[in-house]
Design goal:
- This protein has 386 residues and is α/β, with parallel strands linked by helices.
- It has one domain: TIM Barrel (Alpha-Beta Barrel), CATH 3.20.20.
- The strands form 2 sheets. The protein has an 8-stranded parallel beta sheet.
- Strand 8, helix 6 and strand 9 form a beta-alpha-beta unit.
- The longest helix is centred in the middle third of the chain and has 21 residues.
- The radius of gyration is 22 Å and the shape is globular.
- The relative contact order is 0.16.
- The structure holds zinc ion.
- The site of zinc ion (ZN) has 5 residues, from loops.
Length: 386
């Protein structure tokens, strides 16, 4: 991507454009198909549809592309619709999340895979019984539907579908789907990937299931994943440093979001991720770095640093064009707060928010103390998709 893709330096400026840091990000995992981005929270309309404003704010801070996660048939189709609305900005994935994989089971009552979405709020203390086997007929139907979805996306909107997934294993949430059926779902989808030409990159989910996860990948793609043609990312990583290194050594990328910054141990693992293996995601609207997370302080430090740099630039420069340059929005000086802002829906923001990047303004004096807990967490029931 060209370095001048964001804004432009005003005529007559004396600022060397090459010295101004302009972040260019791709949010590799954001759930823009979630109704929250349309103002609907748990079935109730709380504010006008502000998806356009959310995408505009992302671009404003340097997040040039967003990859919307498809985690079941419904969200994969919605994600593709959004990609059609924002060509060149929004891209998508398609797949069946482990928590949505009960559709592969003999116990599942829905027969129309297209209509299936993730069950809502099952009791975490009640894991799904391991007695039910995967259903071969349903599997055939689901895989053929998924293949049709992918082939149709590839032919009608070439380039929009950039990865297969999300899919994988989640043993922390066996109350959505049993281990046996998750393993079956993962294997069946990996077989589908192997049969696709060209083979898509993978958007993978692994939670508390590292051994089985790596074992199944190796069984399908070879011990060095040599049959995996276009790589993959293990998103929302929360594993150990040893697990991270094993995945990175296999050539996989590691996706980090707020879940990767919950504890000091999590933060230490992130620090060790080789830069050429690191990918950033918000997993918005669910997995931002929260005030209770160990990583929260890094956001505060980065914000203070950004404000300090900006104040210094303003205070020390006689060139007034620097302060008004469209190419340097204040929030883009350091990367972390920018990417975090990308998917933060603001119930107070309405759909009339500007769609063009705003010129940077000098930092204002803080008006009031920021709430410890962002406003939306008070009204929205917490859910962590990961
Ligand atoms: Zn996930």
């Amino acid at each position: 991507m060209a370095s001048d893709a964001i804004g432009s330096t005003p005529v007559g400026t004396t600022v060397d454009d090459n010295l101004i840091y302009k972040p260019r990000y791709i949010d590799i995992g954001i759930n823009l198909a979630d109704p929250i981005f349309r103002g609907v929270y748990h079935g109730k309309e709380r504010h006008p549809d502000d998806l356009r404003a959310v995408v505009a704010r992302a671009q404003e801070v340097g997040c040039q592309k967003l990859i919307v996660t498809g985690s079941d048939f419904t969200s994969s189709r919605h994600a593709l619709d959004i990609a059609k609305e924002y060509p060149g900005i929004v891209y998508t994935t398609a797949g069946i999340h482990p928590c949505s994989s009960a559709i592969f089971s003999t116990s599942h009552v829905h027969h129309d895979a297209q209509e299936y979405t993730m069950p809502s709020d099952p009791d975490p203390e009640q894991p799904v019984s391991e007695d039910h086997d995967p259903d071969p007929e349903k599997t055939k139907e689901i895989i053929s539907e998924l293949r049709a979805l992918i082939e149709s996306a590839r032919s009608t909107h070439p380039g929009a579908l950039v990865a297969f997934g999300e899919f994988g294993l989640d043993y922390d949430r066996l109350h959505y789907c049993s281990r046996k059926v998750q393993l079956h779902s993962f294997a069946a989808q990996l077989d589908l990937v192997l049969s696709l030409t060209p083979q898509p990159p993978l958007f993978l989910h692994s939670r508390a299931a590292h051994r089985d996860f790596v074992g199944l990948l190796k069984a399908k793609f070879g011990d060095r994943l040599e049959r995996l043609e276009r790589g993959g990312v293990v998103h929302s990583f929360t594993g150990t440093a040893a697990e991270m290194r094993e995945l990175a050594d296999l050539g996989l990328h590691i996706g980090t979001n707020g879940c990767s910054f919950k504890t000091e141990e999590n933060c230490a693992v992130v620090k060790e991720i080789p830069l050429d293996r690191l990918m950033l995601e918000t997993d918005g609207p669910w997995c931002e770095i929260r005030p209770t997370h160990a990583g929260w302080r890094h956001l505060l430090e980065a914000k203070a640093k950004a404000e300090g740099i900006y104040a210094a630039l303003n205070g020390n420069s006689n060139d007034s064009t620097l302060a008004t340059s469209e190419s340097t929005p204040a929030s883009s000086v350091v990367p972390t707060p920018s990417i975090t802002r990308t998917a933060t829906p603001n119930p107070q923001q309405d759909a009339s928010a500007p769609t063009q990047p705003k010129p940077a303004k000098p930092p204002k004096k803080p008006k009031k103390k920021e709430p410890e807990v962002p406003e939306r967490w008070r009204t929205v029931k917490k859910r962590e998709m990961g």
